[in-house]
Design goal:
Blueprint (H helix, E strand, L loop, with lengths): L1 E3 L2 H14 L3 H14 L3 H12 L3 E3 L21 E6 L9 H12 L7 E5 L4 E6 L4 H9 L1 E2 L2 E2 L3 E2 L20
Parallel strand pairs: 1-2
Antiparallel strand pairs: 3-5, 3-8, 4-5, 6-7
Helix pairs in contact: 2-3
């Protein structure tokens, strides 16, 4: 297979033909061929080039334009809230199934279901803070393996003040 690296030569020849010859008859013939073959005129032109350059590869030069470089945009982190579901390993819950149901029922992005911990009787997970209340109420009644999710929002624990006293030490009197 011969590769024609002189794409410019072919382009130059075509420009000369387009500039100096009347192509009305050939245009009509190309359109008639394309219509007869039920293909686009572009596909017809490509097929005609294949006839002319049988066994040869016509390689256009790489594009001369450069792709602008963009700085990656750092999005602010999504505020997540911790939730508890009343289903766990005993109810046959698996992570993939749980994510599928949450995506389908709430429309949450699969990547925004985070820190999932499936326990025996319940599941803990984090979901985006912006969940509308109607979706939250809907999720309470959604079934997984014939068990209600009964989703509840967990309250944020405030860390207890650190005591300097050690409760396990004996008092010396």
């Amino acid at each position: 297979m011969v590769e024609i690296n002189s794409f410019d030569v072919l382009t130059h020849q075509l420009r000369n033909i387009l500039k100096h010859r009347h192509l009305d008859g050939k245009r009509n013939a190309a359109l008639l061929l394309a219509t007869e073959l039920e293909i686009s005129p572009l596909d017809c032109a490509a097929a005609l080039l294949s006839l002319k350059f049988e066994g040869e590869v016509i390689t256009p030069p790489p594009p001369s334009f450069s792709v602008p470089q963009f700085e990656p945009i750092e999005l602010p982190p999504i505020k997540m809230l911790r939730y508890r579901l009343d289903v766990g390993k005993k109810q046959g819950v698996e992570l993939a199934l749980l994510k599928d149901i949450l995506v389908e029922e709430s429309g949450v992005d699969r990547n925004n279901i985070q820190n999932t911990s499936i326990r025996n009787d319940y599941t803990l997970l984090e979901l985006p803070d912006e969940m509308p209340s109607d979706i939250f109420l809907h999720l309470k009644n959604v079934l997984i393996n014939d068990f209600k999710l009964n989703i509840t929002r967990l309250k944020v624990r405030k860390s207890p003040p650190k005591s300097t006293k050690n409760r396990f030490r004996r008092k010396h009197t």
